[in-house]
UniProtKB/TrEMBL annotation:
<keyword id="KW-1015">Disulfide bond</keyword>
<keyword id="KW-0325">Glycoprotein</keyword>
<dbReference type="InterPro" id="IPR002350">
    <property type="entry name" value="Kazal_dom"/>
</dbReference>
<protein>
    <recommendedName>
        <fullName>Complement factor I</fullName>
        <ecNumber>3.4.21.45</ecNumber>
    </recommendedName>
</protein>
<dbReference type="InterPro" id="IPR002172">
    <property type="entry name" value="LDrepeatLR_classA_rpt"/>
</dbReference>
<dbReference type="InterPro" id="IPR001254">
    <property type="entry name" value="Trypsin_dom"/>
</dbReference>
<keyword id="KW-0720">Serine protease</keyword>
<keyword id="KW-0732">Signal</keyword>
<dbReference type="GO" id="GO:0004252">
    <property type="term" value="F:serine-type endopeptidase activity"/>
</dbReference>
<keyword id="KW-0378">Hydrolase</keyword>
<keyword id="KW-0399">Innate immunity</keyword>
<feature type="signal peptide">
    <location>
        <begin position="1"/>
        <end position="20"/>
    </location>
</feature>
<dbReference type="InterPro" id="IPR001314">
    <property type="entry name" value="Peptidase_S1A"/>
</dbReference>
<dbReference type="GO" id="GO:0045087">
    <property type="term" value="P:innate immune response"/>
</dbReference>
<dbReference type="InterPro" id="IPR048719">
    <property type="entry name" value="CFAI_KAZAL"/>
</dbReference>
<dbReference type="InterPro" id="IPR036772">
    <property type="entry name" value="SRCR-like_dom_sf"/>
</dbReference>
<dbReference type="Pfam" id="PF21286">
    <property type="entry name" value="CFAI_FIMAC_N"/>
</dbReference>
């Protein structure tokens, strides 16, 4: 191993170009092909959704992103789980205060609650183990070339510049105590003479960006012939702030150049620059929920978009990410991260630390899962033209009919356990004993043999229900358990999933309504019918001063030919996600007439009531993720 001793007291070590706007001393240097300087800051109005920004979404906003496995989603925010809520399976890990934890999840949940101790290493705690990160520049503590000392190594090592991105730089800065992460990975960095540089031997590091210390990232050693650029970082300090007019204001208070919002890179460190996007730049991937993802997240075998689009159409393009294929993984990353075409060189790569990202995925796979919104494969529905078509057995296994005396006036939606969702205007708590819940009903003139009839235990009307404005038109029906039964029997029913985020479906998405309601000409209907409608935005234009955006949803067709009508109330408007999982997106609520294009059907927006529903039925019953 040949070490190069640097004799200058302070050597100006140029890493790459850096734009002058951060200060006079940052000068443009040689620009390599794969490090083009970013374009001048330009207004990003076409990319950023300003209204959405008011919600101040971050990496902890579970209506936009999935929570970490050591977190759960409560009221739209990922909060820390208690360690005992972690899966038990796993190997022990050690924290920086020398404490051993049964699994990585236990440590992360403990750290989430009490951030003073961080991850140190996988395995047992050793007496001499220590991990440290430092920056080379003696003149300032916020920038420099990064050096690390790994737990089981005795000397400080440099990090290679290739693969060093904002995710890694943010983690390095978090580790050094800069809570807003990094400002840039490029610039002119200095290092002092007592650092020994052997630039052909540097460490590769890969982080996800959520880590709180570089010790959680995966380090590998790679020997390549010739010179290697070294990783440097400029950590964010308010002094380095950009003018408000030329920058994007992150939720954590940091300011980043405008042109770095919606580019798939978590420049803010809290992801707030990637969560309110109308489009994505630099080849990053746009989720329907308005989130930009780095392109490597597409088809990586893990769901990142809340409605799953990043893992659709991946056949043949699945990226192999087994830890054993370190060499190919590295080569692949180099291509996908920089977009540059490097010549393939045979390199020796040795993984030095545990792969905690794989461990995170393993923990995620062990979390409890609920089953909803997936039909038994009886037959495929025969799709016909719009207009309301008769349903076949098994098409709508969540659909129920509410019988009041001898009349069926309303529908309902089975959501699991003993619970049916309906419209508040359909039911009265005092009449609970008059109601019957009919499941698997197709035609109430020609009754099918598998119908199950349930009695009602109680009815919960939303406390904000207003019978005049139809605000909060939502109610829960609890089904009576059969004597000697611990659970409710919904033998032929399958629950529809309850949407936890208002971003799961968007205007223009095609969804399905079903019910026993009247035809357009007020003709009575005895059989269950269904039709496809599109979600409609801007519904106040049809119902001025009567439409409440947050609580209501409009749906219909351009010619109005498909619509819900009298008798469909309380029934479902369901939408299917990219994996064909069915969500109850709306409850038939009201509308001016039926089948008139200028007056679309109005539905209770169920996603707005996830917390209200979970409060009554219990979070685990309806939580698909982030339990
Ligand atoms: C009703 O009276 C009703 N066209 C339900 C839905 C619509 C109109 C009326 C929407 O139950």
């Amino acid at each position: 191993m040949k070490l190069v001793r640097v004799v200058l007291l302070l050597l100006c070590f140029c890493l790459s170009s850096f734009e002058g706007k951060y200060g006079k001393h940052w000068k443009n240097q040689v620009t390599k092909k794969h490090e083009l300087p970013s374009a001048p800051a330009a207004p990003q109005e076409d990319l950023v959704d300003a209204k959405c920004l008011l919600n101040k979404y971050t990496h902890r906003s579970c209506s936009k992103v999935f929570c970490q496995p050591w977190e759960k989603c409560v009221d739209g925010t990922c909060i820390c789980k208690l360690p005992y809520q972690c899966p038990k399976n796993g190997t022990s890990v050690c924290s920086t205060n020398g404490r051993s934890f049964p699994t990585y999840c236990h440590l992360k949940s403990f750290e989430c609650l009490r951030p003073e101790a961080k991850f140190l290493n996988n395995g047992t705690c050793t007496a001499e183990g220590e991990f440290s990160v430092s920056l080379s520049d003696e003149s300032t503590d916020s920038k420099g070339i990064v050096t690390v000392k790994l737990v089981d190594q005795d000397k400080k090592m440099f990090i290679c510049k290739s693969n060093w991105g904002m995710a890694e730089a943010n983690v390095a800065c978090f580790d050094l105590g800069f809570q807003q992460g990094a400002l840039d990975t490029r610039g002119r960095f200095h290092y002092s003479e007592d650092l020994q540089i052997n630039s052909t031997e540097c460490l590769q590091v890969r982080c996800q960006g959520f880590e709180t210390t570089l010790a959680e990232c995966t380090f590998s050693k790679r020997r390549v012939p010739g010179y290697q650029g070294l990783a440097g970082v400029l950590c964010y300090t308010p002094a380095a702030d950009l003018p408000a007019t030329e920058s994007f204001a992150c939720v954590n208070g940091k300011r980043i150049p405008l042109n770095r919002a919606c580019n798939g890179v978590n420049d803010c460190g809290d992801q707030s620059d990637e969560l309110c996007c109308k489009g994505c730049q630099d080849g990053s991937f746009l989720c329907k929920s308005g989130v930009c993802l780095p392109n490597q997240h597409r088809c990586n075998g893990e769901l990142d978009c809340i409605s799953g689009e990043d893992e659709v159409g991946c056949e043949g393009s699945r990226r192999g990410r087994t830890p054993s294929s370190a060499l190919s993984r590295h080569s692949q990353d180099r291509l996908s991260r920089t977009g540059a075409e490097y010549p393939e060189v045979q390199e020796e790569t040795e993984i030095l630390t545990a792969d905690m990202d794989t461990e995170r995925k393993r923990i995620k796979s062990l979390l409890p899962k609920i089953s909803c919104g997936v039909k038994r494969p009886v037959h495929t529905r025969r799709k016909r033209i719009v207009g309301g078509k008769p349903a076949q057995a098994g098409d709508f296994p969540w659909q129920v009919a509410i019988k009041d005396g001898d009349k069926i006036n309303c529908g309902g939606i089975y959501i699991g356990g003993c619970w049916v969702l309906t419209a508040a205007h359909c039911v009265r708590p005092s009449r609970a004993h008059h109601y019957q819940i009919w499941t698997s009903l197709l035609d109430w003139i020609k009754l099918n043999s598998n119908i199950v009839v349930e009695k009602v235990e109680r009815i919960i009307i939303h406390e904000g229900y207003n019978g005049t404005t139809y605000q909060n038109d939502i109610a829960l029906i609890e089904i009576k358990k059969r004597p000697s039964h611990k659970e409710c029997v919904f033998s032929n029913s399958i629950p529809a999933c309850v949407p936890w985020s208002p971003y799961l479906f968007q205007p223009k998405d095609s969804c399905i309504i079903s019910g026993w309601g009247r035809e357009k000409d007020n003709q009575k209907v005895y059989s269950l019918r269904w039709g496809e409608v599109n979600l409609i935005s801007n519904c106040s234009q049809f119902y001025q001063n009567r439409y409440y955006e947050k609580e209501m949803e409009c749906a219909g067709t351009a010619d109005g030919s498909i619509d819900a009508c009298k008798g469909d109330s309380g029934g479902p408007l369901v939408c299917l996600d990219t994996s064909n999982v069915t969500y109850v997106w709306g409850i038939v609520s009201w509308g001016e007439n039926c089948g008139k294009p200028e007056f679309p059907g109005v539905y209770t927006k169920v996603a707005n009531y996830f917390d209200w529903i979970s409060y009554h039925v219990g979070r685990p019953l309806i939580s698909q993720h982030n339990v």
